[in-house]
Every structure is written in structure tokens, then in C-alpha cells.
Amino acid sequence: MQGNNHVEMGWGAPPMKEQHPVLSDCDCIHFDRDNQDLSRLVVRGLITRSAAAAARKKYVRHVEKAIRAAIAQEEGS
């Protein structure tokens, strides 16, 4: 993978485009929004910590899938 191979999450996380420049602008906007929304729901007490942990695992899997697809598309070009 290009650069780092992890995903930072939470209020202090850098934007997804900074973390993984290979991702499209559109994907980054969606992933940044998901991260912010998930954090907001936890802070407001609208979802449990266990539900947030499960959502974070799914989020990371989606980001990883998008990164793999972007790299494959770059290599195919």
C-alpha cells in the first residue's frame, strides 16, 4: 500500500485525503463524514461504545477496500 497502512479515526484525525491520497476526493468526503458522524453519535450517547466499535471495524474494512480498488485502478491505468 501507499504510505501508511492504517486509518486514524476520531475528532483529531487528519482528513482522509491526507491519510490516503490515493483515494478519490468523493470517497474521502464520504469517509470523513462517516468518521465525524460516528464520533458525534458516540459523544451524544446515541450509540453504545460496543456499537461504535463494531461500526469502526466496518468503516476500516470499507476504507481498506477503497484503497485497494484505487491502487488497482492506478496500476491498471
What does this structure look like?
With 77 residues, this protein is mostly helical. It has one domain (16-76). Helix content is 66%, strand content 0%. The chain has three helices and no strands. It has helices at 16-19, 25-43, 49-76. Helix 2 (25-43) runs antiparallel to helix 3 (49-76). It is elongated. 12% of the residues are buried. The model has no long low-confidence stretch (mean pLDDT 92).
Count of beta strands:
0
Portion of residues in beta strands equals under 5%
What Rg, in angstroms, do the CA atoms define?
Answer: 13 Å
In DSSP terms (H or I, runs of 4 or more residues), the helix count works out at 3
Please tell me the overall pLDDT.
Answer: 92
Q: What's the domain count?
A: 1
